[in-house]
Design brief:
The chain is α/β, with parallel strands linked by helices. Helix content is about 30%, strand content about 30%. It has 3 domains: about 5-105 and about 335-360, Udp-n-acetylmuramoylalanyl-d-glutamate--2,6- Diaminopimelate Ligase, Chain: A, domain 1; about 110-130 and about 240-330, NIF3 (NGG1p interacting factor 3)-like (Udp-n-acetylmuramoylalanyl-d-glutamate--2,6- Diaminopimelate Ligase, Chain: A, domain 1); about 135-235, Alpha-Beta Plaits, CATH 3.30.70. A 6-stranded mixed beta sheet has the order 7-12-14-15-16-13, with helices on both faces. It has a 5-stranded mixed beta sheet with strand order 2-6-5-4-17, with helices on both faces. A 4-stranded antiparallel beta sheet has the order 9-10-8-11. It is globular, with a radius of gyration of 25 Å. The protein binds zinc ion.
């Protein structure tokens, strides 16, 4: 089975909308044609040259990664640099490259939720840079007998989700009136005669990311020539979103036990830490990758420990001064689980998925004397 690349990206961006991404980031389609038909893709954490070579050798249609290939602006694309060589290779071999970076860190079910799940945290909430998603109320008038078809199509396209509930809609029966004008071809009634139709007013909540898809899906199955619908911006907003996560361990444990547990859960043999090993850990804040800029946010939110990657000496010193334990499980170990989540998502859309094994490409090696 194959689908148009953009159709797949529309679904992916409903999960991790591009407007979630940080201003300094560069998420999106880095190379390739949105109209290309795709059936086989490769998923990797980073679009390093090894992953690009593997994707080209495997003959996949697209490489899907978390880290971006083009990060700073480029003024030349040539074989002098690794990024230039990768871009040339991808384009010459007609392999698209899509990167879902900070938008996927922030998205529900993205990098940080996957990490929180691996650490078996409960009552998980976003940690920092908190904001509410913009939400819309869509109201549409549907002739009796079509209310279920329209409702289903709208919910399938992303409408009607409130917390962990899906399919949330409301409908009320009433009478719609309309006068078909010259040259119309009305589904009910006839040209020039006032029609009183039995209709349902169907209403549901739609997040910004799904609005155009929901309206398109609604119009595609609605039987009327001219569909009457209203879109209202909701002041109460949607779900809270933000970077990082904070949650609770089911059973508190010492920092020493938490280090063991984290190493086991993230398949990582080498952890760096800050704090007293006997300290009791109950509330855990985390941010996959390089998350040290949220150290104070983690402390403020009441965390006993902060799990992230890329801790430097002065970060540990700052954490010590904040009286906050830190566990650095490494950039790769705190992010690589997203590769399976991306692969699972793509398989659900009917794509054949290959996984590039990043563990073999861990650039950061540890030497024990
Ligand atoms: Zn990263």
């Amino acid at each position: 089975m194959s689908i148009r690349c953009q159709s797949f990206l529309t679904l992916l961006e409903q999960w991790a909308p591009l407007y979630y991404a940080e201003d300094w980031d560069n998420a999106g389609l880095h190379a390739g044609d949105r109209n290309k038909e795709i059936s086989r893709i490769m998923v990797a954490l980073s679009p390093g040259e090894a992953a690009v070579n593997a994707a080209v050798e495997a003959g996949v249609d697209m490489l899907l990664t978390h880290h971006p290939l083009i990060f700073r602006s480029m003024k030349q694309i040539n074989s002098d640099t690794a990024t230039g060589r990768s871009l040339l290779k991808l384009i010459r071999n007609d392999v698209n490259l899509y990167c879902a970076h900070t938008n996927l860190d922030i998205a529900r079910g993205g990098v940080n939720d996957v990490l929180a799940a691996a650490l078996q945290l409960e009552e998980v909430k976003p940690l920092a840079d908190l904001t509410h998603d913009t939400c819309y109320k869509v109201v549409v008038y549907v002739p009796a007998g079509y209310e279920e078809t329209v409702r289903e199509a709208m919910c399938k396209a992303g409408a009607g989700c409130i917390g962990n509930y899906s399919g949330c809609t409301f409908q009320a029966k009433g009478t719609g009136t309309f006068l078909p004008g010259d040259g119309t071809n009305p589904f009910l009634g006839e040209e020039g005669r006032m029609e009183y139709a039995e209709e349902y007013r169907l209403e549901t909540v739609v997040p910004q990311a799904a609005l155009s898809a929901v309206i398109k899906a609604m119009e595609a199955v609605h039987p009327y020539e001219e569909v009457a619908y209203d879109v209202f911006r909701m002041e109460n907003g949607g779900e809270e979103r933000g970077i990082g996560r904070i949650g609770k361990l089911q059973n508190p444990m010492s920092l020493a036990d938490f280090l063991d547990f984290t190493g086991l859960q993230l398949s990582c043999n080498h952890l760096t830490y800050q704090g007293d090993l006997t300290r009791q850990i109950k509330t855990v804040a985390l941010c996959g990758g390089s998350g040290l800029s949220y150290l104070s946010a983690a402390k403020k939110a009441g965390a006993d420990v902060y799990v992230t990657g890329d801790m430097r000496y002065h970060d540990a010193q700052a954490a010590n001064e904040l009286d906050l334990c830190v566990v650095d499980a490494g950039h790769l170990a705190t992010e690589r689980l997203i590769v399976d989540a991306l692969a699972g998502f793509a398989r659900k859309q009917g794509l054949e998925v290959l996984i590039f094994d990043e563990a073999e490409q861990d650039y950061l090696k540890h030497w024990s004397r």
